[in-house]
Amino acid sequence: MKIAVVGATGLVGSKMLRVMEEYGLTDVELLPAASERSVGKEVEFAGRKHRVVSVPDAIEAAPDYAIFSAGGGTSLKYAPSFAEKGCTVVDNSSAWRLEKDVPLVVPEINIDTVKASDRIIANPNCSTIQMVMALAPIHQAFGIKRLVIATYQSVSGSGIKGLQQMDNEEKGIESPVMAYHYPIHHNVIPHGGEFDEQGYTTEEVKLVNETRKILGDPDIRITATVVRVPVSGGHSEAVNVETRKPFELAQVRDLLNRMPGVMVVDDPARHLYPMPLYAYEKNEVFVGRIRRDESVENGMNLWIVSDNIRKGAATNAVQIICKLIEKRK
Ligand code: A2P
């Protein structure tokens, strides 16, 4: 089996190689691809070095699967060419996520939406993935009516550039690369992506649309504020949930405990709650601070934390490929 990783030299792409190793997806011919700048460089995978190739060369090799994490423009330009060769593309950019015929997949929730004929599958936005992992069982049991979300997103969500800017600012060096309009060290920036006419950012709109698509319910009312915080790895989210049916908190805890890939960390008396420092390099989604919102009839508050580069990107994509390989055997 041949697997191409497009963007293999980037933050998410290189993590994909590590996650493929961890998931035992090593008995494959790897085609690491990146921009022309990186052709000829080497990446490590499964104990040996692999030469980075150009994207056209990776297409020519007609891989069985291609995982893309090289930005929306690269996905739009090249994913169809891979698909024409019969390759199944799992794309981490936002380019195809809302296309009607493209499944938007979190394997624990909706791998069944992938048809045998699908050649482009979208990996959701990092903040969406970790949130729906906690919300899917709640939605199934009680029906979610409304969500009010605030995110606390790490700089790694902006790729290597985000980490470099924060690192330079921490060291007091004027940063030659700026991922944001402002310093991020000692700061909090309420701005992710571009603003629309209503004053929402593209990252906020993604949370609304992608959540509705994955949970299969266009009627869920959703509003979000996306915030970048000076954290190197791991996104956090404060999520206020209103359900259609009444619930007991014990039922919610039980559902979350039984959801594969979710870990409940919620013991305030022992100061136990999820935090990005402890979610870093883990594949699970951590949920805590589970409490009733007394201001509405059926309301609760959740605090959801996960490593955005892992479950929010690389792990989710690799899990999709593993499930498809299993299904198509
Ligand atoms: P390169 O390293 O050659 O620039 P990050 O988000 O961490 O910055 O990573 C982006 C990834 O996408 C890198 O692997 C980068 O390759 C790759 N990439 C960026 N632009 C292109 C392009 N036009 N064609 C192919 N790969 C690209």
Secondary structure elements and pairings:
Layout: E1 2-6, H1 11-22, E2 29-33, E3 42-45, E4 48-51, H2 55-60, E5 65-68, H3 72-84, E6 88-91, H4 107-110, E7 120-122, H5 126-142, E8 144-153, H6 160-170, H7 202-215, E9 221-228, E10 235-243, H8 249-258, E11 262-264, H9 276-279, E12 285-293, E13 299-306, H10 310-327
Parallel strand pairs: 1-2, 1-5, 5-6, 6-7, 8-9, 11-12
Antiparallel strand pairs: 3-4, 8-10, 10-13, 12-13
The chain binds adenosine-2'-5'-diphosphate.
How would you characterize the overall build of this protein?
The chain has 329 residues and is α/β, with parallel strands linked by helices. The protein contains ten helices and 13 strands. The strands form three sheets. The protein has a six-stranded mixed sheet. Strands 2-1-5-6-7 form a five-stranded parallel sheet, sandwiched between helices. The protein has a two-stranded antiparallel sheet with strand order 3-4. The protein is globular. The termini are close together. Bound molecules: adenosine-2'-5'-diphosphate. Adenosine-2'-5'-diphosphate binds at residues 7-11, 13, 34-35, 37-38, 55, 70-71, 74, 159-160. Adenosine-2'-5'-diphosphate is lined by residues 7-11, 13, 34-35, 37-38, 55, 70-71, 74, 159-160.
